[in-house]
């Protein structure tokens, strides 16, 4: 079931939606892929080239940029921001407004079953391991190993688990 509210959603024709995707109002999706049974909350933007797996929950006010892959069964809390450029600039060396040719998109991967708490910022070029947990408000600057809980600014390991949380 897709909630069709033409005045409150911007979903372009190039978006690939899986089966039974639930999308709330005030969402902006373009050029992305959304897997089966995934829920997209209010005020979410997902940019071109981003991929969201099956049975994910993307909470409200979240920004998922180009270069982000979120595997199946991932929870993304409210107000999460993904970043794909660690050195952003408005203009290039010649003083002209930058274009896509002037920068390199950094890839971020969130592995299956991970949890990203509300208010987290994830820098580009990192991997969040399978079943990892990132505590609310954290700033993630480097890879998070599987089955690990991290928190803080910058995020640091709090504990390691031998198996996924249930």
Q: What's the order of the H and E elements?
A: EEEEEEEEEEEEEEEEEEEEE
Helix coverage percent of residues?
under 10%
What is the alpha-carbon Rg in Å?
16 Å
Mean pLDDT: 93
Could you tell me the number of beta strands? 21
Question: What is the CATH superfamily classification?
Answer: Hexapeptide repeat proteins
Q: Structural class, from helix and strand content?
A: mainly beta
User: What is the number of domains?
Assistant: 1
CATH topology: UDP N-Acetylglucosamine Acyltransferase, domain 1
Distance between the termini: 28 Å
CATH architecture: 3 Solenoid
Number of helices: 0
The main β sheet shows up as:
8 strands, mixed
Instruction: Name the beta content range.
Output: 25-35%
> Any idea what the shape is?
globular
CATH class assignment: Mainly Beta
Instruction: Kindly report the spatial arrangement of strands forming the biggest sheet.
Output: 3-6-9-12-15-18-20-21
Stretches where pLDDT is under 50 for at least 5 consecutive residues are none
